[in-house]
Amino acid sequence: MNESADSRTFEMSKIGGARITIVIAGLGAGGTEHVVNILSNHWNALGCTVTIITLEPPDAQPYYNFDPKIAVVRLGVPPRRASKMHSGFLVFQRFQRLRTAIRHSRPDLVLSFLTRTNVLTLLATVGLAVPVIISERNNPALQPVGAFWKWLQAILYPRAFGFVTMTQGALDHFSPKIRRIGRVIANPVDLPTGWRDRRGKNILAAVGRLTRQKGFDLLLEAFSKIASTYPEWQLVIWGEGDERRSLEALRDALGLQKRVDMPGVTERPGLWIETADAFVLSSRYEGWGIVLLEAMAAGLPVVSFECEWGPSVMITHESDGILVPSEDVEALAKALDRVLADRELRERLGARAEVSAQRYMPERILSEWDALASCALNHKLQTRLQVAQKTA
What is the pTM of this model? Predict the structure, then answer.
């Protein structure tokens, strides 16, 4: 969205002073959590009263830094595996606590992220005179949320004031009733301040939760095909998750114990960009792929599966990165072979990637969120005026 300085100031003035409540499952390391961090700090700086409600245990600690003025309310009912009967009880408990917490925050606007949390938030705000904006951050066609939640999603999503996806492809997946309230807002790229260039040790980096979605098993297979050709290169997979043991077992079975490091989550957000010399995204599907954009913004050459959705929006093939067919291990191995073998190619791709990533700088993306938030706040004001006129 291209706005003049006067228009930008107008939007900010309408938002300043508003009470905004953000609902998210947790505040750990992840792309959605990073967006919540950027948005909440931004709106707090504009003078909003920001409350973040999570399902986490009371002693949970956020991965990203939040301004002390931002209130974080943890409901103590995190998602976990349970029997069907107990799961129903937990959902009801989350609903009750969430509704109470939202009412206590006295919001002018509620913003929710991710499918199950969106559904709970829409249920918890029934009867409350507050606009709700919901956002999907993954591939809605492939993420495993379950038939029950899909059913509730279809019923409840049209009741929201606004619906945000990161790509047009994700928005087009939904019904016309949901698309009617939809808006596409890409993820902003926000590199850590003061990061140091400590590159030059031939590190191929991958970043993400250790889950099947991220396709690190495919990456290990691809890297095993070229590892002997590039003994000076090491693959480092940053992240944590349920698939750690199976991925470590696959790494060892492929004879890559000394060639692949899996150090967990970085001590500080974005720390991995300091040591990476190239980046690879091996996901089976994505909502966006913010780590890919971070790598591009940091001037790294990138190779990515052309999974739905995100990578093909960010990357122009052979110009600022290399795209390969989704889940094609042989193609991924060949692309990595090209990049690791050619320093000039890496430098050219990295330089162009850094320029391309400027499209997603925070100021530009935040202006789109500001416009949507001010629209919702104006809607609430108009509704109040209409009610007042009817009762006068």
Answer: 0.91
